[in-house]
């Protein structure tokens, strides 16, 4: 039985999450609240919320866990060609945290194959925006001709990045934002991006599953690190195109 968490209750150990035979593998707990403090505690323990509007807040820790190692990010020939175009065309920009809530709203309205509606409700936007205001959540945004055409957001703790959602209103714009994020994290020696659950799209970009035990061990170590800088521009994309900019170079702190 999934425990119901009162406001001050701690999360149960992730090993108590429901198994594959349950019909809801990875479901750990439920609660009525999505307080920023609860959300932050969840990520520090390898737990994330995912639920539909009208449901209680459902907390998950699946086994295995989908991850993307920046060193294993796959750049297809067509994406490499796109990134080269972005680098040489002044109409393209990469912005960080230009409007975090706007990125979340765009992700909420993006169509998802096989899904109706969105879990990114007003309450979810409020909770993650609270983390953003204190520097624990960030957006990476692809802009073209002064318009935001793609982006992603996630939670950043120490040298861990927990990816949440992406959107694109222009072909490959979300991949451009992801490539920028991955290159930036490589430069800051971030070894792993949490992708939560397996999708064919993430697998095509180099994502893969690892055991929850290994994932939790990594999280426990890396959320304690000093936060990385969140100031960069589209030149980080040179890592993937054979252009200038050594992958090991760290950009100036904000």
From TrEMBL:
Pfam families, A to Z: Leu_Phe_trans (PF03588)
InterPro entries with a match to the protein in the record: Acyl_CoA_acyltransferase, Leu/Phe-tRNA_Trfase, Leu/Phe-tRNA_Trfase_C, Leu/Phe-tRNA_Trfase_N
- Isomerase as UniProt keyword: no
If you read the UniProt record, what top EC class would you report for this enzyme, in one word?
transferase
**Keyword vocabulary terms for this entry:** Acyltransferase, Cytoplasm, Transferase
What does UniProt give as GO cellular component?
cytoplasm
Task: Give the location in the cell.
Answer: Cytoplasm
Could you provide one GO biological process annotation from this protein's UniProt record? protein catabolic process
Q: SUPFAM superfamilies in the record, alphabetically?
A: Acyl-CoA N-acyltransferases (Nat)
Q: Which domain of life is it from?
A: Bacteria
Which GO MF terms are attached to this record? leucyl-tRNA--protein transferase activity
Q: Which HAMAP family match?
A: Leu_Phe_trans
Family to which the UniProt record says this protein belongs: Belongs to the L/F-transferase family.
Q: Which PANTHER family match?
A: LEUCYL/PHENYLALANYL-TRNA--PROTEIN TRANSFERASE, LEUCYL_PHENYLALANYL-TRNA--PROTEIN TRANSFERASE
Q: What does this protein do?
A: Functions in the N-end rule pathway of protein degradation where it conjugates Leu, Phe and, less efficiently, Met from aminoacyl-tRNAs to the N-termini of proteins containing an N-terminal arginine or lysine.
Q: What name has this protein been given in UniProt?
A: Leucyl/phenylalanyl-tRNA--protein transferase
Q: What organism does the UniProt record list as the source?
A: Paraburkholderia acidisoli
What gene is this protein a product of? aat
């Amino acid at each position: 039985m999934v425990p119901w968490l009162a406001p001050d209750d701690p999360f149960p150990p992730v090993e108590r999450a429901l198994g594959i035979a349950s019909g809801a593998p990875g479901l750990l707990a439920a609660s009525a609240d999505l307080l920023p403090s609860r959300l932050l505690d969840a990520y520090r323990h390898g737990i994330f919320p995912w639920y539909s509007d009208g449901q209680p807040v459902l907390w998950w820790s699946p086994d295995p866990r989908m991850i993307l190692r920046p060193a294993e990010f796959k750049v297809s020939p067509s994406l490499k060609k796109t990134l080269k175009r972005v680098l040489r065309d002044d109409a393209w920009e990469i912005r960080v945290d230009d409007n975090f809530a706007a990125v979340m709203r765009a992700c909420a309205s993006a169509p998802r194959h096989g899904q109706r509606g969105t879990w990114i409700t007003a309450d979810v936007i409020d909770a993650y925006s609270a983390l953003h205001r204190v520097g624990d959540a960030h957006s990476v945004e692809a802009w073209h001709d002064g318009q935001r055409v793609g982006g992603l957001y996630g939670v950043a703790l120490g040298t861990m990045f927990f990816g949440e959602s992406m959107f694109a209103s222009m072909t490959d714009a979300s991949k451009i934002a992801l490539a920028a994020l991955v290159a930036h994290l490589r430069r800051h020696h971030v070894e792993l991006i949490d992708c939560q659950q397996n999708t064919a799209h993430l697998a095509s970009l180099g994502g893969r599953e690892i055991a929850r035990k290994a994932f939790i061990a990594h999280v426990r170590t890396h959320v304690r690190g000093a936060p990385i800088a969140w100031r960069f521009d589209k030149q980080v994309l040179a890592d993937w195109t054979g252009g200038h900019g050594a992958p090991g170079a760290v950009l100036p702190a904000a």
